[in-house]
Design goal:
The chain is of the alpha+beta class. Helices cover 24% and strands 42% of the residues.
Length: 168
């Protein structure tokens, strides 16, 4: 790290997280960013989710993201926790989108509902946003999951930068 732009950067180490660490991190998180793409145009938005084994479960309503993921099911979910500029974790899970329609996926939807139900107001953002924008009848629930193909993560460990104006 000899070519650091910031004097405190030498005290920071960035390490790869193990698969187990990444899985545990996702299992304890509930908010992340979903990334999808269509016609070479990326789309990223916040989501509430639950992670278990090789799946990430999401409750939403039908909209642009569902349209795009139906066309291109390759997606990713990014989650981070930032304590300071030199203390953070970031995990990216890549995989494939799969809708869970009734009645074919009743058991999977019930499972997703139970997992998501452990999260505070997991349903609120998706329904409230659609109801405010389009009216009560437009908020058709949509459960989907992402079959995770790969999880990678990085963790930074170090000291925080000195405060502006601090004396040595």
């Amino acid at each position: 790290m000899a070519d650091c732009l910031f004097p405190w950067a030498e005290a920071m180490t960035v390490c790869e997280m193990t698969q187990e660490e990444c899985g545990e991190f996702l299992a304890n998180a509930s908010v992340g960013r979903l990334g999808c793409a269509l016609d070479n145009q990326p789309y990223v938005l916040p989501i509430y989710f639950a992670h278990e084994a090789e799946y990430i479960y999401v409750f939403s309503t039908f909209g642009q993201k569902a349209k795009w993921m139906r066309e291109n099911p390759k997606v990713c979910v990014q989650v981070d926790e930032i304590s300071s500029p030199s203390q953070w974790m970031s995990v990216i899970a890549t995989g494939h989108y799969q809708e869970l329609p009734e009645p074919e996926f009743t058991a999977e939807r019930d499972h997703a509902r139970r997992l998501l139900g452990k999260r505070y107001q997991w349903w609120l953002n998706a329904l409230a946003e659609r109801q405010l924008r389009l009216g009560d009848d437009a908020a058709t629930p949509l459960f989907f999951r992402i079959h995770v193909a790969l999880i990678t993560g990085l963790r930074a460990i170090g000291s925080s930068p000195p405060e502006v104006g601090a004396r040595s």
